[in-house]
Amino acid sequence: MRVSQLFNPTLREVPAEAEVISHQLMVRAGLIRKTASGLYTYLPLGLRILKKMEAIVRAEMEAKGGQEILMPILQPAELWKESGRWEAYGAELMRIKDRHNREFCLGPTHEEIITDLIRGEIRSYKQLPLLLYQIQNKYRDERRPRFGLMRGREFVMKDLYSFDRDETGMDESYQKMYDAYCRIFTRCGLVYRAVEADAGAIGGTGATHEFMVLANSGENAVVYCPECSYAANVEKAECHPQIIEDVSPEGPRKLVPTPNVKTIDDLVEFLAVPKTALVKSLLYQGDEKLLLVLVRGDREVNEIKLNNALGGFLSLQLASPEVILTLLGCQPGSVGPLEVPNELMVIADAEVPLMKSAVCGANKADYHFVDAVPSTEFRINKVFDLRMMETGEACPKCGAPLKDARGIEVGQVFKLGTKYSKALGATYLDINGEEKFCEMGCYGVGVSRSIAAAIEQNHDDYGIIWPMPLAPYQCIIVPVSTKDALVVETAVNLYLELQRLGVEVILDDRDERGGVKFKDADLVGYPIRVTLGSKTLANGQVELRERKTGETQLILIKEVAQQVKAIIEKALLF
Ligand code: ATP
Ligand code: MG
Asked: Which among 35, 36, 29 is positioned nearest to 14, based on CA atoms?
């Protein structure tokens, strides 16, 4: 390819709405353009990168025995109703109607479609295990599409589904995919961690891991143990109750005036007590139900754990001040667990009943209770681990203090068990002729998001630094003196020679100043640059520069092609 013919509109300025560096650089380097919120057009270089990522994913899926298929994006509502997810998936599902008023959705994932396929085709244990995958656009009406390709409403995903005879088989398929994912992200040169995670809307009963590319811009908080292999999304990280050596109550519980106290901080200051002496009481609304949630004053409620503890799929949110006023007769800041209506369910984090004495709201403006005893005086219906993990807490596996990091979720693997095979009736006859449900797993890679994640980890002030396996072209040739016939001719010859050697090479044949060409090459992030100028060429030499290190060396023109090839081969070794 010649840059003069390439459709690659680069920009010097940072696009106003691009918050994260990968989004800024993808637009500036002319890789993508926005069509509408969460929808992007891939320009030629962007598409080359996407195809490379796809090829890596495809190769690793094939290596584990995955077979590629392609399912429809448009999916009939009936299948989603059969699995129960038409309701449960909520507002993220893009729903549409055809001319006959029949309902469809644009697939956010394909468990229903593939299970429907399998129930029609699989009869015998001899046909299992089966690993089927596709690479395709997915659609999710995200609450906040943002960060360019990172959170789109349309995005490219690889989704593989495994069907096994029994749990042992499912565990093996899971391990295969886990290993394949490690290979994919290592091969792309990414620094990542596999973390224990929550199953979210996909559901299922068994294990699930998320693959997190570590980057400060990541939307996920993860904790990991520097001593052992434990790592988890904070949404999931299991917390052990920490007992505070607090003082016993000074006497029976008392109602004390707390004028103008609205927040936890106000209360701490007014009563001169630590946050750990308080109980935070929050009224939540889930579907039609109301529930009171209690955590210690220094803790935050983990809504994912809360939702799971309640069986999942409640659209949980904090109750509005109007609802609180009607039920408890007070403002949100005065809510407390004592003397609440009998029908109100009270759920406490595991630390609350361990507190010897507590300060809590009194459901009455300008008053709080002090010296309340949670274990005997609170009417608690259920106790769960409901709080957010904090940095420095003990590792649940080995006890060492945990560290935290931010991560971009680039993939997730799930053990589904029989959730979908039961809902849709995907059975087979086992060796004894008995009918059994298939044991399933599903495994997603965010192909387009992975590209953005790669940029988050590989860039500098001048632009992108592509890891070799993802680079749109591996090498760019830059003739700086385009008026010098020898320079131009040598550059073209080198270009042809590299092509013959199988190098993905691009020639910047534009009639531009060297500085302009260098800036664009650095912005786009080609891993190798070969520069030809009149002076060095007079000595038979060209300059070879690696984008990653910025190091340059002068090399004899007759040796440069082999050298470029060697650098590429080394970088692609895996
Ligand atoms: P998130 O928590 O980031 O919304 P998810 O857990 O809902 O993602 P999965 O259902 O696990 O996503 O989908 C598999 C993979 O698809 C994710 O690991 C992620 O890399 C990618 N992905 C999910 N949503 C998006 C999106 N809106 N834009 C780009 N990639 C996405
Ligand atoms: Mg996920």
From this structure: 29
Give me the DSSP letters along 285-330: EETTEEEEEEEETT--B-HHHHHHHTTS---EEEPPHHHHHHHHSS
Q: Distance (Å, rounded) from C-alpha 205 to C-alpha 441? A: 11
CA gap 236, 221 in Å, rounded: 10
C-alpha to C-alpha distance for 22 and 166, rounded to whole angstroms = 42
- Among protein residues, the one with the nearest Cα to ligand 1's atom 27 is 151
In ligand 1, which atom is closest to the CA atom of 142? 27
* pLDDT at site 308: 83
CA dihedral 280, 285, 286, 290 (to 10 degrees): 90
Mean pLDDT by 10 residues, the chain (574 residues): 96 91 97 96 98 98 98 97 91 96 97 96 97 98 94 98 97 97 96 88 74 94 91 89 78 91 91 94 89 95 88 80 93 92 94 94 94 94 93 88 94 94 95 96 98 97 97 98 93 98 97 95 98 95 97 96 97 90
Count of Cβ atoms closer than 10 Å to residue 346 Cβ:
18
Q: What was the pLDDT predicted at 323?
A: 93
For residue 61, give the H/E element and its range.
helix 44-63
Write down the residue that tokens 């046909």 correspond to: 127
Rg over CA atoms, the chain = 29
CB 19 within 8 A of CB 26: no
Q: Is 165 in the pocket of ligand 1 (CB under 6 A)?
A: no
Distance CA 24, CA 14 (A): 6
Ligand closest to 409 (CA) is 1
What angle (nearest 5°) sits at the alpha carbon of residue 167, between those of residues 163 and 172?
Answer: 70
Span from the CA of 133 to the centroid of ligand 1 (angstroms):
16
Regarding beta strands 528-532 and 475-479, do their DSSP bridges make them parallel or antiparallel, or are they unpaired? parallel
Q: Under a CB-based contact definition with an 8 Å cutoff, are residues 419 and 440 in contact? A: yes
What domains can you pick out in the chain, each with its CATH number? 3-238+403-456 (3.30.930.10), 254-384 (3.90.960.10), 473-571 (3.40.50.800)
Centre of ligand 1 to C-alpha 246, Å, is: 43
Which pLDDT score is estimated for 201?
59
Task: Determine the distance from the C-alpha atom of residue 247 to the mean position of all C-alpha atoms in its chain, rounded to a whole number.
Answer: 43
Per-residue buried b or exposed e for 431-452, using 16+ beta carbons within 10 Å of the residue's own CB: eeeeebbbbbbbbbbbbbbbbb
Residue 110, ligand 1, Cβ within 6 A: no
Q: How many residues comprise the chain?
A: 574
What's the gap in Å between 448 CA and the centre of ligand 1? 10
pLDDT of residue 463: 98
Q: Which ligand is nearest to the CA of 192?
A: 1
CA of 546 to the centre of ligand 2 (A): 35
Which alpha helices (H) appear in 111-202, and where do they start and end? 111-121, 167-187
Nearest CA to ligand 1 atom 23: 446
Exposure b/e, 402-412, CB count within 10 A at least 16 = b: bebbbbbbbbb
Residue 86 neighbours by CB distance under 10 Å: 17
Sign of CA dihedral 197, 203, 207, 212: negative
Q: Is 87 exposed, middle or buried (0-12, 13-18, 19+ CB in 10 A)?
A: exposed
